[in-house]
What we know:
Blueprint: H1 2-16, E1 18-19, H2 21-28, H3 32-44, E2 49-52, E3 58-61, H4 74-88, H5 94-105, H6 112-119, H7 133-148, E4 152-157, E5 163-176, E6 179-186, E7 191-196, E8 200-205, H8 221-227, E9 233-240, H9 244-251, E10 257-258, E11 263-270, H10 274-281, E12 287-291, H11 293-309
Antiparallel strand pairs: 1-3, 2-3, 4-5, 4-8, 5-6, 6-7, 9-11, 9-12, 10-11
Helix pairs in contact: 1-3, 2-3, 4-5, 4-6
Amino acid sequence: MKLDRLLAIVVLLINRGRVQAKDLADTFEVSIRTIYRDIDTLGQAGIPVVTYQGASGGIGLAEGYRLDRNVLTDKDLASIVTALRSVSTSHTNVARDLLMEKLSSIVPEAKNEDFQANTSRFIVDYSMWTHPEALQIKLQLIEQGMDQLRPITFTYCSAEGTQTHRTTDPHTLVLKKHSWYLYAFCHERNEFRMFKLVRMRDVVLAQGSFERKPINLQDRPWQQGWATPDNKVALSLRFHARIRHIAEEWFGIENVVSDGEGYYISQVAFPEDNWLYGFILGFGADVEVLEPLHIREEIRRIAEQIVQNYKAPPLT
């Protein structure tokens, strides 16, 4: 365990430049004293660890230090192959498949059985029950734009149904809740925006080129605007007992509380838009919005409109 921690500390210092001892202690769930002992051990092993004093101080490595590629263990390789295989379930990529073959081929034959077992312990399957070819074509075009640093143009339909023409510099593809999104710098809005691929049509590689802008992907910038408190509305939802398990899947067991009358209450917060109305309606007659009243009224209005749609015979 100590050897694994020492190697992990070196990797963190290489990637982050300078780290506080307390942050390292929190990451590895050990004391600060243990971290300083680990730093002494690394120094004695010839790794150029540097400590910086002052308010902006911390622990770092001498500039230019890199790990040898042979530092990857068989378990590291198995973890990489498992991650690549999981990603491939939703987006096929020849280069990624070849990389998995390369990684598998460098494992000694005597360890191949253990390696295969390690890569088969779990897999995250992101694939849909159907495989729309149109989505794969969009993914390939966007990846080509990212590889060649070429802008892409497309017509985008917003959640409200408004269609606009966009020219963007593609930076990152994001898979979230079984849906693909493009995080790109939008020329029309002069800022980074998130685009859902199923709402994009007429995707084309544009002429010209762009320079990637620095973004900190670890902070998931596409999440920040959506998750801010001033962008959310607090809801009180009451669920029928027969869909309690579904409510628990969405909101967590601890947030689905019995009201003592055979129903269950959840206190949640979401941005208010058409997605929210559709999300609530997706529970059918087994959910009731208790608060806020204006969302309760909007759900009632939409439900009445649905009833009206089904009163008359279908148009032919």
